[in-house]
Specification:
284 residues; alpha/beta; Protocatechuate 3,4-Dioxygenase, subunit A; 6-stranded mixed sheet; 6 helices; binds 3-methylcatechol; binds fe (iii) ion
Length: 284
């Protein structure tokens, strides 16, 4: 028998890692608290909750279930997951409503800045014999006026063929399937990777319990996460999906838009599939 201990992926482990990651990001952001705005937003949020309690005659038993569930979400570290799955899509909708360039969508809980820097045509860091269909993801970064953008970068991160993200699930090498690709002087890039699998929200934590209790499903369609940026332009955070993939039409995180669905064809080199997608960035 092997004496290698294979750690299991758990909701609490990925939740704790996501919480840590979020906290380290927050350290660099200045607190910006306007009393009047906090008053308005929190008062309206509470008023909406009061209204629901009255309309549905919420009982003490239900109130106690809510209380214990909320406590457990914190203990599992699943606040980043909960918020990004069920609220972030509307924050993104509001934040990007005036953009003219490529569509954005939610960042989700599993972004890590400063992934390894890679050349304009590159293979993402991956294990020997990484499972999954080979995928060449290529394109160009341009400005809204059509100008190719030199100095552009495309950050990419995605799940493996089992639906797991490096740094958030055990037994994966650091930076697996993550990279910062520096496009060439015409904004062109070509990224060799593998197609990610659909992602299932951990079923053994509080978010999983909510999903089961409500009779929902726990799936996100297979997706690539991306951040494209260039000097003098606004960074766009987005995701791309695969036509015909499961749950493209019923993403638990409500983060699919028609413009974000890729339709890869057979790869020119005969290995797997390839697709071209161009990013159009708004001016800063
Ligand atoms: C993911 O991979 C993801 O992208 C989001 C938004 C939530 C949970 C897992
Ligand atoms: Fe994701």
């Amino acid at each position: 028998m092997s004496d290698i201990i294979t750690e299991q992926a758990t909701a609490a482990a990925s939740g704790t890692a996501a919480t840590e990651q979020f906290r380290s990001k927050q350290r660099t952001q200045a607190a910006d608290v306007d009393t009047k705005r906090v008053d308005t937003l929190v008062s309206e949020l509470l008023a909406a909750a009061h209204d629901i309690i009255r309309r549905h005659k919420v009982t003490y038993a239900e109130y106690d279930v809510l209380k214990s569930w909320l406590i457990q979400v914190g203990e599992d570290g699943e606040w980043p997951l909960f918020l990004d799955v069920w609220l972030e899509h509307v924050v993104e909708e509001v934040a990007n409503e005036n953009r003219e360039g490529s569509k954005g969508t939610i960042e989700g809980p599993y972004y890590i800045p400063d992934a390894p820097i890679l050349a304009a045509e590159a293979t993402l860091p991956m294990r020997d014999g990484e499972e999954g269909t080979a995928l060449l993801f290529q394109g160009q970064v341009r400005s809204v006026d059509g100008t190719p953008l030199s100095g552009a970068t495309v950050e990419i991160w995605h799940a493996d063929n089992d639906g797991y993200y490096s740094q958030f699930a055990p037994n994966l090498p650091e930076w697996n399937l993550r990279g910062t690709v520096v496009a060439d002087d015409r904004g062109n890039f070509g990224i060799h990777t593998i197609e990610p699998a659909p992602y299932q929200i951990p079923t053994d934590g509080s978010c999983g319990r909510l999903i089961a209790a409500a009779g929902w499903h726990a799936w996100r369609p297979a997706h690539l996460h991306l951040k494209a940026s260039a000097p003098g332009h606004q960074l766009i955070t987005t995701q791309l999906y695969f036509k015909g993939g499961s749950h493209v039409a019923d993403d638990i995180a409500s983060a699919v838009k028609p413009e974000l669905i890729l339709d890869p064809g057979p790869a020119a080199d005969g290995d797997g599939r390839e697709v071209t997608y161009d990013f159009v960035l708004d001016k800063a």
